[in-house]
């Protein structure tokens, strides 16, 4: 924690010079100045042009579905006679796009598109991608984000977005996953700027009936397991015989998986249970409050209606998590480790802020002022009382 | 920070015993066990019965107005054909109600009523009030919160709610202001449970025209200043002569104020400016993003329409902040220190969580699966690809 705090302090006090220094030291670059890590609009466009037409079409389909969904849930201003509640997009949104072992253009779409739908117009993106072109850059180009993209990563990138440097604009909120240093830096700057969440290991809770094809569920488990070694699955089923079939097919299919090393490690985190009653099932679902809850069961409508706490609920055989990770629409940035009990997945509304506008009229003032005065007095806040009381005279200007 | 972390660790490992111990040590109590700090329903009722009918009526008026407003802004489920977004109240909400130099029943109403409107049914309240009866207890009684009220405070109260003890139920979210130890404890448990926000010193930005009665504005400034020594006002006006009048009346009226010592100390934090252009004004408003923005000006409609970032906006002479602190309706728990640029005041919606329910049908699956498969492959997540691809066979059960 101290090391990360030192990086943040250095970026705050020395700006670009510290970002250059830490990036050269930790990421093996030879940047001489901050302009060297700016990703030009040309590089972003070249990344897009380089993609196959099929992959371009897939990214466009995904973007369109995310947009349509996010528009459908975007809050509308509540305009009341005397009190309104109004929304405003954040002025500047910052994104951290991981770029280590793998590149995740889907994460670009799942974080940037909600911000676009919210009405955000100023974007800052940091990503530790040092290649000339990349599918991450291509996804940014598709989103129209071509200014203020910087090929930097780690805690120094988070600090630069939180406090700004000569080159990197200060943002109001930082979104996106990262490694342990990134997560710690986000935790430390939280409050000075907003952050989306601190993501823990990914998890899925599957509840399936005995009629579901075993191999489909095995691939759902493998899909969860291939993320990283800390990923895990809670599999709830109705009979031991079905659980045994799953176990047997996991063993049979594992050796054929391309990411079998990661899968083999992470499936040791899995929990398999037989659930006897519906009450027990619902209690488990809401207690675990898993990031992904996948219900593939003849009674799925009834069960899902009782789920209160989940990152996202995937109902039915054709709504497996993997399709939700890419093209269903809702963001795949979801609360983990039971935090769905009190937090929700990223949406367009998370890129807005809101405030009440209170416009009490003279007649209403006359009705409610006595209550306000009495409470102020009871709390010993006498100037509050006077500030209310003094307005018993007429209004100074032409107000209803 | 270390001291607070130690308190939290002790409460986590030793439960009630640590809460009793710290409360006796820091708050001068002689509790022998945890039942000693439970506030009985009888004590809560006695506190209510003891209030004057006028004060009871004032609390009821306030509660009714908060309820009406919060209902008007409560989010409704979005039920889509294949994707829905649904809300659920938090299972257990926790409240910290300060009880030091003064008692603030308005804070009880401004935090508990939004949770009631959200549909929360389980409440835990901690408050360092050790009297037999109090107006804080009365406000809780009015809200129907009579179980799990505990007369404890400080970091140990926050830790007890965050992790639970034998006597104090674990909560999902902790709301309410407190001293520096409480604020630090909230910061440290954040993530294990949700917290509302870390409140900084209170502030107001006033923009007034020259026709507003000078004394009304002076009392608005005093009302802000009487909170505590760190409170502050930004006063923006149109002419030096008006600013001079304000300064003269502050000097004249200060000696007559009951809380003059606090006021005298905190008005030294104030900033007074003459604003020349509308553009300049709007830029200042959105840059400062004050907790309270009070616009009392002949062009107030036009100006307020351009405010993007504020804790709450008070428009007009009869919507002074003091009335908003008590009876307007919106919660007075608001973001401070510029954090309104990325966060909002407490509402009923903050006591709910939400999740998408994704129910992709077979026909939609056929349309979007290829895009999902291609992106999974591009990201090297081959089991994701297989989990999507394997469902090209027929559905196992009767699903549309």
TrEMBL record, chains A, B:
Binds 1 zinc ion per subunit. CDD domains: Histidinol_dh (cd06572). Gene3D superfamilies: 1.20.5.1300, Nitrogenase molybdenum iron protein domain. It comes from the Bacteria. It is an enzyme of class 1 (oxidoreductase). The keyword tRNA-binding does not apply. Its EC number is 1.1.1.23. NAD(+) binds at residues 96, 156, 179. Its cofactor is Zn(2+). The active site is at residues 291-292. The keyword Zinc applies. Zn(2+) binds at residues 224, 227, 325, 384. GO terms for cellular component: cytosol. Signal peptide: none annotated. GO terms for biological process: L-histidine biosynthetic process. Substrate binds at residues 202, 224, 227, 292, 325, 379, 384. InterPro entries: Ald_DH/histidinol_DH, Histidinol_DH_monofunct, Hstdl_DH. Keywords: Metal-binding, NAD, Oxidoreductase, Zinc. GO terms for molecular function: histidinol dehydrogenase activity; metal ion binding; NAD binding. NCBIfam families: hisD. Belongs to the histidinol dehydrogenase family. PANTHER family: HISTIDINE BIOSYNTHESIS TRIFUNCTIONAL PROTEIN, HISTIDINOL DEHYDROGENASE HDH. This is Histidinol dehydrogenase. It comes from Aerococcus agrisoli. The gene is hisD.
């Amino acid at each position: 924690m101290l090391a990360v705090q030192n990086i943040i302090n250095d970026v705050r006090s020395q700006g670009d010079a510290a970002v250059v220094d830490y990036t050269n030291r930790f990421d093996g670059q030879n940047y001489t100045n901050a302009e060297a890590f700016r990703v030009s609009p040309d590089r972003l466009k070249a990344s897009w042009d380089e993609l196959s037409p099929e992959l371009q079409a897939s990214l466009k389909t995904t973007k369109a579905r995310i947009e349509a969904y996010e528009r459908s849930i975007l809050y509308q201003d509540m305009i009341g006679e005397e009190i309104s509640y109004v929304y405003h997009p954040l002025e500047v949104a910052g994104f951290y796009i991981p770029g280590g072992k793998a590149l995740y253009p889907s994460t670009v779409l799942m974080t940037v598109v909600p911000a676009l739908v919210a009405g955000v117009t100023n974007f800052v993106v940091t990503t530790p991608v040092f290649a000339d072109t990349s599918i991450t850059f291509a996804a940014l180009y598709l989103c129209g984000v071509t200014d203020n993209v910087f090929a930097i990563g780690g805690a120094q990138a988070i600090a630069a977005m939180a406090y700004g440097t000569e080159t990197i604009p200060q943002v109001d909120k930082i979104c996106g996953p990262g490694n342990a240093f990134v997560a710690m830096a986000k935790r430390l700057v939280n409050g000075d700027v907003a952050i989306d969440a601190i993501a823990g290991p990914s998890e899925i809770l599957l509840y399936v009936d005995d009629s579901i094809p075993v191999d489909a569920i095995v691939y759902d488990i493998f899909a969860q397991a291939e993320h990283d070694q800390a990923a895990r699955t809670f599999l709830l089923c109705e009979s031991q015989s079905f659980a045994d079939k799953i176990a047997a097919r996991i063993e049979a299919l594992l050796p054929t998986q391309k990411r079998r090393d990661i899968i083999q490690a992470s499936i040791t985190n899995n929990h398999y249970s037989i659930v006897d009653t519906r009450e027990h099932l619902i209690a488990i679902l809401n207690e675990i409050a898993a990031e992904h809850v996948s219900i593939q069961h003849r009674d799925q409508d009834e069960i899902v209606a009782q789920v209160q706490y989940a990152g996202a609920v995937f109902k039915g055989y054709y709504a497996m998590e993997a399709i939700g990770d890419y093209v269903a629409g809702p963001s795949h940035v979801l609360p983990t480790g039971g935090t769905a009990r009190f937090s929700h997945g990223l949406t367009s509304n998370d890129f807005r802020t809101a405030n009440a506008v209170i416009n009490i009229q003279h007649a209403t003032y006359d009705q409610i002022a006595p209550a306000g005065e009495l409470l102020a007095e009871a709390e010993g806040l006498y100037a509050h009382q006077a500030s209310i009381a003094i307005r018993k005279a007429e209004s100074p200007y032409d107000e209803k």
